[in-house]
Amino acid sequence: MFYKEKMRNIPPTGVKWLKAAHLLFACLWVGGALSVFFIQAVLRAQGAELYGMDLAAKLADDLVIIPGALGCLLTGLAYSLFTPWGFFRHRWVAVKWGITVFGVLFGTFFLGPWLNSLAPVSKELGFAALGDYGYMRARDLNMVWGGVQTATLIFAVFISVLKPWRSGQEG
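^ thats the sequence. predicted structure below, dont judge the formating
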């Protein structure tokens, strides 16, 4: 009991800083995911531009999405350990944990490798990459499942604000 009380003893100012950091990382993750999705779904390449688009998407992943996802994971962990929110005390927090952990793992083992495979092919083949089966398969999988992941992340943002499934004693 003493351990739990001591672990959850973060001062109010610390909670505000933690919340600000968590929001910043969420903005990075969601904003980066939206950027990659729109680069792939909306922009149309002509010639060597395909490589530029693939490289831009990869850089957005490496420099924005990955730090945002890891930051969300770590600040969420701090929230759960050092504040009364916990991991499973509230259903909406548990759902957010599921979304975060699944998102990090799915991004690491599927979305990231699919995305990382695109730029080398388009650099070598240029516009002809659009006729390459492996390139198109990775691009299509990344676009579809990246879109699903982005929608799920946006859902997690709304869960954070609306706090559905609550018992009435939450704030």
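Residues 24-162 form one domain.
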